[in-house]
Amino acid sequence: MLKQLLPATLKYKLFTAFIFLIIVPLLLISLYGFGKIEEVLEEKSIELSKRQIADMQMSLVDLLGTISKSQISMSQNPLLVSHLKDTSVEGAFKRRQEIEEIINSYSNSFFLSTPPVYITLVNNYGDVYYTYTPVSPIDGDTLLEEARSLGIMSSRTYNAWLEEPNYLYELTQSSKLLTMVAIFKNEQDKPNGMVRLSIDHTRWFDSLTKRLADGEQLYMIDDEGRTIFHSNQKTTLANEVPQGYVPALLKNNQPQVKIDRVNKAIYTTAYLTSLQWTIVKRVPFHIVYSEVLTLRKSFLYVFIVVTVMFILVTFLISYTITKPVRLLQKEMRNVTKENLMTRLSQDGFRGEMFDLAVSFNHMIVDLNEMVYKLKAEERMKESVRFQVLHSQMNPHFLLNTLNTLKSQAVTHQDNTSFQICVALGKLLETCLNVEVDMIRLEEELDMVKAYVSIQNFRFADRFVVSVEVSDELQYALVPKLSLQPLVENAIVHGFSRSKKRGHITISVYTEQASLVIDIRDDGIGLEKAAERKLPRKRHGIGIANIQERLALLFKQEASLKVNPIEGGTEACLRMPLLIAKPYEGS
Fold first, then answer.
1. Following CA atoms 115, 121, 127, 132 in sequence, which dihedral angle do they give, to the nearest 10 degrees?
2. Strands, DSSP E only, in 420-529?
């Protein structure tokens, strides 16, 4: 299915490779990079908003704290407290002058760096003192009644904050004022007066908006979720703070951040405990990402232009490559039709195409030589096969002769000759099986036993062969006739000229992934055997034959080592462990 989707021609393959290996990865990497830049800008914007909101929160808390300190200082001023208790008519004018001078001093000294604070003082008898010129007369009893309605006359709470309509129209144009209403208490914890400290908080909010960037918005929300103030008075209801973005209680009064992916804005909030108000700063995404959006747009324009140019260049390059390739393809079809007997014309080719034509002609020559060699090898194999078949005639004739001798031994009840014929027959049958190179270990051990039985007839049971092998290793594969020559060497060179009874031990075990076969004898040893070596009509081929076959079968993974040991000789055969499990029910 995938092959059907891929283009067939080289030109379109190059184009597809360029798109999926260069254009698409470059685009994905660029988008990933822009995403990371947006994350960094978002984090920086959040940290900046947190700092600004925290500064605004601290500024308002300091303002309210200064007003509270001023109220406490006035309640502890002994001259002011004595005047509030004095109700005599004598000296009333002077008393008013001194009281107003005291509260004016507070107004002038404590609020030099804040918006103006307007102080109104009322004693228990309804006398009113103020730091401003009222538009209309002020009723002290009404103010006392208002304090009673706030519940601060008879409770432990001595002050309360409220937002009320502006009563100083000539002094400020704001529609509302933020006022702290507090009472003065005597030694018996009874109220002896009250004070109102009003501030134009809208002007203070306006000063905060100067710190905002274009497009950012600042809100002040009360405990009921109503918007007390927002920086842009022209905003519509759709730009109000969404429900749920003002938490009921902010943990540790620390600024909190919430990102609105739907409306694409970041909201930062801070809580004012004393007023139960929440400051909210709204930063739209387009302000946070304005630079990266511009950069992304520029990148896309450049990317599109570069992509178009690369596509055109790719088609041009692919055309220059595919045209000579098509010509070469046509000529190659002609070569196959003429059975490798022609050559490609090198005229008209340049550069890589010329080298390709030259290489192709060399390849045709090499192929012809290879075909000739293969035919010669095939004829040689047929000749070798004929020789093998021919060589099998003599062993077959010998095997038939052994069977005749075995029948004669049975007829004449010659058990010794019968046993020799049986053992020799096993050896000949294994040698005649030229189809396999590897046999099971148990079969190889059976051949060793057959050979040993023949030699014991010859040497009158002068040696004993013992085998140490576990049952699971009986099915290990070993090269055919790999143990018999080693046992033969031990008998011929170790015991043939010795009169003592000899022992040969065959130990089979595994080391990691290798099969190890140790053949030990207690014969005369390698040195004495070399001294007593008799001249032979032909060279022995036992050990050399085994080593060559091991190299052919296992390369460097198998070995045969013959070493002298104390009291004899050891032959160690090592090869990879291969297990041939028997068939079920066999």
1. -10
2. 438-440, 463-468, 477-479, 502-511, 514-521
**Contact in structure between 289 and 38 (CB atoms under 8 Å):** yes
**Adjacent-strand bridge partners of 176:** 165
Q: Are 205 and 218 in contact (CB under 8 A)?
A: yes
Q: What share of the chain is helix, strand, coil (3-state, %, to 5)?
A: 55, 20, 25
Q: For residue 566, give the 3-state DSSP assignment.
A: coil
- pLDDT tens digits, one per residue of 179-223: 889 888 877 777 888 898 888 888 878 877 877 877 888 888 887
- The closest alpha carbon to 421, from 411, 438, 408, 432, belongs to 408
**pLDDT at site 517:** 94
Taking the C-alpha atoms of residue 61 and residue 279, their distance in angstroms, rounded to an integer, is: 12
Q: Which two tokens stand for residue 31?
A: 């988008």
247 within 8 A of 235, measured Cβ to Cβ: no
Asked if residues 180 and 163 have their Cβ atoms less than 8 Å apart, the reply is no
CA atoms of 331 and 213, how far apart (whole Å): 74
Q: Please check the confidence at residue 585 and state whether its pLDDT lies above 80.
A: no
Instruction: Tell which residue, 345, 376, 367, has the closest CA to residue 358.
Output: 345
C-alpha distance from residue 216 to each of 52, 228, 268, 280, 287 (Å): 12, 17, 11, 11, 8
Q: What is the pLDDT of residues 423-461, one digit of tens each?
A: 666 666 666 565 677 888 988 888 888 888 877 777 777
pLDDT digits (tens, 9 = 90+) for 79-97: 888 888 877 777 788 888 8
Q: In angstroms, rounded to a whole number, what is the distance separating the alpha carbons of residues 145 and 136?
A: 18
- Closest by CA to 202, choosing from 234, 237, 165, is 165
Q: Which residue has the tokens 């028997």?
A: 582
Residue identified by tokens 């801070």 is: 270
What DSSP string describes 181-234? EEEEE-TTS-EEEEEEEEE-HHHHHHHHHTTSPTT-EEEEE-TTS-EEEES-TT
Q: d(Cα 402, Cα 420) in Å, to the nearest integer?
A: 9
Residue 126 backbone class (left: φ over 0; alpha: ψ -120 to 50; beta: rest): left
Region label for 91, one of left (φ > 0), alpha (ψ between -120 and 50) or beta (otherwise): left
Structure tokens at 483: 């143990």
Burial, 331: exposed, middle or buried (Cβ in 10 Å; 0-12, 13-18, 19+)?
Answer: middle
More confident call, 354 vs 124: 124
What tokens appear for 485 in the block? 């020559």
Stronger pLDDT, 236 or 334, i.e. the higher one: 334
The CA-to-CA distance between both ends of the chain, in Å, stands at 47
Total residues found in the chain within this entry: 586
**513-522 tens-digit pLDDT:** 899 999 998 8
**277 Cβ neighbours under 8 A, 6+ residues apart:** 220, 221, 222, 223, 228, 271
